[in-house]
Design goal:
The protein has 80 residues and is an alpha+beta fold. Helices cover 38% and strands 20% of the residues. The chain contains 3 helices and 3 strands. The chain has a 3-stranded antiparallel beta sheet with strand order 1-2-3.
């Protein structure tokens, strides 16, 4: 799976399975943080039709890879 195949539902499902908690929602994105680290918040884009959605997903997978200490190309395929 590439970042262009990843949608909001896949992202939030992955975060839930990986020990992240939803902390705030808006019209365009949601904020999530690890259960053990309230300071490490990520934004999850909601609107797939937005022109920057793919870029936002790529930024999110890059941040997740840093949090998980592994390459982003290993994280993206696990988001489904």
């Amino acid at each position: 799976m590439t970042t262009s195949d990843i949608g909001f539902d896949e992202l939030t499902s992955y975060l839930s399975r990986s020990g992240w908690q939803h902390s705030m929602a808006g019209a365009l994105s949601e904020a999530w943080h690890p259960v053990h680290d309230l300071d490490s918040t990520v934004l999850v884009p909601k609107v797939a039709a937005a022109p920057d959605f793919s870029r936002a997903v790529k930024m999110l997978t890059t941040e997740l890879s840093k949090q998980e200490n592994r390459p982003a190309d290993e994280v993206a395929p696990e988001i489904s």
